[in-house]
Design brief:
Helix content: 25-40%
Radius of gyration: 16 Å
CATH superfamily: Ribonuclease Z/Hydroxyacylglutathione hydrolase-like
Structural class: alpha/beta
Number of strands: 6
Number of helices: 5
Number of domains: 1
CATH topology: Metallo-beta-lactamase, Chain A
Strand content: 15-25%
CATH class: Alpha Beta
Strand order of the largest sheet: 1-2-3-4-5-6
CATH architecture: 4-Layer Sandwich
Length: 152
């Protein structure tokens, strides 16, 4: 089993761990980087793995630094299940939509502030991306054991 840290290593935010063996590749969390000057650039960079090759995601909890890039992950090709508790799923329904709304509004505001019109200020993700991610949530009761894959 191999674990690769793609966030929350040498910093607190952006939790995202790729776990893989011969037969499965999954993420534990897919969080947004927050705070500091480099956070936006980190959130916008391409994933260092192919999202379409990820079998599933396990979200530990709904904080945006653990779940905030799920809409981007789904937009970029991930279409597997996202496992979490029912409470986390309920919060994600609110938080991911709210995050998309904030990104859309921030991009619009940034475009209006420019003296010359520019179209390169785009939201990190949009409401449609958040809506695409939500049906992929698969809930389990807190402390309930489950097998997301035959080898896990």
């Amino acid at each position: 089993m191999k674990i690769t840290f793609h966030g929350a290593a040498q910093e607190v935010t952006g939790s995202c761990f790729l776990v893989q063996n011969e037969s499965v590749r999954f993420l534990v969390d897919c969080g947004m980087f927050q705070g500091g000057r480099g956070a936006d650039a980190k959130n916008r960079r391409p994933f260092p793995f192919d999202p379409s090759k990820i079998d599933f995601v396990v979200v530990t909890h709904a904080h945006i630094d653990h779940s905030g890039l799920l809409p981007k992950l789904c937009r970029d090709g991930f279409n597997g299940p996202i496992y979490c508790t029912q409470a986390t799923a309920e919060l994600l329904g609110i938080m991911l939509r709210d995050s998309a709304h904030i990104h859309e509004n921030d991009a619009e505001r940034a475009k209006r502030r420019r003296k010359k019109p520019r179209h390169d200020v785009e939201p990190l993700y949009i409401m449609a991306d958040a809506e695409r991610a939500l049906p992929q949530l698969k809930t389990h009761a807190y402390d309930e054991s489950f097998n997301p894959h035959k080898d896990i």
